[in-house]
Amino acid sequence: MSKFVRGTVLSGVLASLLLAPAMGAAQGRASVKVGKDGNVEVTAGDTEVKAGSSGARVRAGGTEVEAQGDEESASEQGEEKSGDAQIEISGTGSQETHRCSPKTAVSISGSGNEITLTGECKSVSVEGASNTVKAEAVAAISVEGADNTVTWKRAVGGKKPKVSRTGTNNKVSQAR
User: Fold this and answer.
1) Bridge-partner residues for 135, per DSSP?
2) Cα–Cα distance measured from residue 85 to residue 11, given in angstroms and rounded to the nearest whole number
3) Residue 22, helix vs strand vs coil
4) Per residue in 111-156, pLDDT tens?
């Protein structure tokens, strides 16, 4: 499952848990199942979430939180690998500032996030919708999804960053 799909599913699951009581879930009328090993599973009466690919699990009434995964998903969640720094940001509506080093790869997924990156970033990858990213310096930018905006002040090494855009209405530009 790609990081974009996983981030989108988890964002949707969390949003549904937050909105479910207002939609009548408190009276026992909520449930979501996906299956065919896209896993997921949401219930609402006293909450429960299960995600998939050997990771996640929440429970509310009785409190239980669990997040596990294989080595690949552990490295996707921000653990360093082969000496390169990694910053993983996911979710909805976050306002964050992070400092990059020349070896830092930044991955942002979700929607409505406002992220500021200082220092020199090796790469910035944005997946999702309506994210705004301001980078001080970056060597490569990848944007997937819709209505994302990435601005950068200067390029690493004097060359303009390598830019890849997929989706609709994504904007990448140099700040003036």
Assistant:
1) 117, 152
2) 25
3) helix
4) 999 999 999 999 999 999 999 999 999 999 999 999 999 999 998 9
Long-range contacts at 156-162 (CB < 8 A, ≥ 24 apart) = 156/102, 156/120, 156/121, 156/122
131 closest CA partner among 86, 172, 75: 172
Apex 132 CA angle, 96 and 5, nearest 5: 90
Burial of residue 158, with CB atoms counted within 10 A of its CB: 0-12 exposed, 13-18 middle, 19 or more buried: exposed
pLDDT in tens, 26-54: 455 566 676 767 676 777 666 677 776 65
Q: What is the dihedral of CA 162, 168, 172, 176, to 10 degrees?
A: 160
Dist. CA 165–CA 143, nearest whole Å: 5
Distance, in Å, from the CA atom of 115 to the CA atom of 88, rounded to the nearest integer, reads 11
Whose tokens are 């720094």? That residue is 85
* Exposure on the CB side of residue 79, measured as CA atoms within 13 A: 9
Q: Which of 98, 176, 81 is nearest to 133 (CA)?
A: 98
Q: Rounded to two decimals, what is the model's pTM?
A: 0.54
CA distance 161 to 176: 15
